[in-house]
């Protein structure tokens, strides 16, 4: 996974580029709305712990991520956070919590149906009665005939990034190809493969694991659901 994505090879760049990301604030607003007395939270696929650091100001938090490189970085940069190496398909923290999150498309890195069921079983295994689950994941594919380019600010200057997408309907994998022209003059390429789970599929996986979907919406919280990425809010009610 590390080889496929520049951000995983350079977690500091990942944090810098995502600095303005509002996922933690959106997530916190959703938890305040649906489970205002929540005190404990687990973030699955927490990456560098950027969102967890914000959420930890309000909740007692634990984070889990598959990649040792990201977890080592998180320990170095955010030593106060409890972040562990683990696979969200199988990890068991031996405790139940008020809220569980899976943000920044982490769920989309799970491609196979059985593995997705296993992830929802992990959510259920960590849920107190009435616990809230907040997912941020792709609910429709990005289909663009042409590549698009943008300038991205990085700590060492401006990078030019060119992005194109492929969509495979049979596997529901949306592949993003990114080409970076970095300020150093170097080039980098990544290929990110994300599984799209359409709203009714998410509903199915959630309800099979004992969660009732309360809301699906674009963020920051709005009443609409247009995709391609959405927040799903579900309550554990087995
Ligand atoms: C796009 S990143 C998002 C990270 C973080 N949630 C954020 O928003 O910055 C996806 C993350 O999912 C993690 N991941 C992928 N598969 C995983 C698995 N099976 N178990 C735990 N983490 C996983 C990756 O290591 C990566 O950190």
TrEMBL record:
Residues 43-129 form the Methyltransferase domain. Pfam families: Methyltransf_25. The lineage of its organism: Bacteria, Bacillati, Actinomycetota, Actinomycetes, Kitasatosporales. GO terms for molecular function: methyltransferase activity. This is Methyltransferase type 12. Keywords: Methyltransferase, Transferase. It comes from the Bacteria. SUPFAM superfamilies: S-adenosyl-L-methionine-dependent methyltransferases (SSF53335).
């Amino acid at each position: 996974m590390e080889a496929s994505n520049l951000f995983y090879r350079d977690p500091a760049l990942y944090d810098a580029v995502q600095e303005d990301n509002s996922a933690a604030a959106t997530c916190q607003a959703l938890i305040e709305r649906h489970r205002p007395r929540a005190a404990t939270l687990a973030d699955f696929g927490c990456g560098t712990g950027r969102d967890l650091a914000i959420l930890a100001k309000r909740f007692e938090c634990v984070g889990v991520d598959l990649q040792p490189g990201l977890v080592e970085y998180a320990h170095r940069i955010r030593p106060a956070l409890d972040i562990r190496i683990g696979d969200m398909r199988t990890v068991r923290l031996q405790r139940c919590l008020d809220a569980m999150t899976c943000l920044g498309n982490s769920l989309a890195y799970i491609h196979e149906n059985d593995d997705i069921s296993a992830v929802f079983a992990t959510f259920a295994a960590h849920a107190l009665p009435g616990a809230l689950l907040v997912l941020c994941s792709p609910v429709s594919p990005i289909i663009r005939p042409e590549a698009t380019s943008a300038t991205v600010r990085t700590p060492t200057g401006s990078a030019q990034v060119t992005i194109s997408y492929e969509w495979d309907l049979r596997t529901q994998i949306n592949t993003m190809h990114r080409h970076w022209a970095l300020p150093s003059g170097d080039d980098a390429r990544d290929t990110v493969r994300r599984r799209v789970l359409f709203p009714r599929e998410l509903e199915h996986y959630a309800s099979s694991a004992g969660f009732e979907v309360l809301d699906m919406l674009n963020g920051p919280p709005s009443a609409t659901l247009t995709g391609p990425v959405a927040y799903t809010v579900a309550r554990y009610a087995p």
